[in-house]
Amino acid sequence: MEKELMDYVKEKTADLLAAPMCCKELRAAAEAWLAALGTDEESAATKAYVAELEADIMPVDGLIAFTESDAGRALFGEERAAAMAAHGHALKDAGRLYCDCPACTAAAAILEKKAQLL
C-alpha cells in the first residue's frame, strides 16, 4: 500500500477510534488492521476491516428509520430522537448517503479508498 494512502487511512482510522459512537465490532476490526500493518496478515485484515466498515456505516435512511421508531425514541428520548430524525431528513434532502456522525464520516472517508485498499 502506498505511503500516502496508508497515512490517510491511518488518520481516518484514528478518527474512527476516537468516535464514541464507533461500535465494538468496527473498533476491533480497526485495531486488528492497525496491528496487522506491515505483516503477512495485512491483506486479510484489510479485507476484514473494509467488510466491517461496509456493515457498520449507517445509511441515512437507516438513521431516519431508527430515530423515528419506538426503539429509537426509547433510546434517545422523544425530543432527541425527533431532532436526530429531522437531521437525518436534512442529510437526505442534501443528497447525503450516510449519517454524518464522526464514526460514519470516518468510515465513509475510508470506504472512498476501498478500490485502492483492496
Note down, in words, how this protein is organized.
The protein is mainly α and 118 residues long. It folds into 2 domains: 1-57 and 101-118; 59-98, no CATH class. The protein is built from 8 helices and no strands. It has helices spanning 3-18, 24-36, 42-56, 60-67, 70-76, 78-93, 102-111, 114-117. Helix 2 packs antiparallel against helix 3 (42-56) and helix 3 (42-56) packs across helix 7. The longest helix has 16 residues, at 3-18. The mean pLDDT is 96.
Indicate the structural class: mainly alpha
Order of helices and strands: HHHHHHHH
Rg over C-alpha atoms, rounded to the nearest angstrom: 16 Å
Count of extended strands: 0
Number of domains: 2
Quaternary organisation: single chain
Gap from first CA to last CA: 9 Å
Mean pLDDT, rounded to whole units? 96
**Number of helical segments?**
8
Describe the structure concisely for a colleague:
This protein has 118 residues and is mostly helical. The chain is 75% helix and 0% strand.
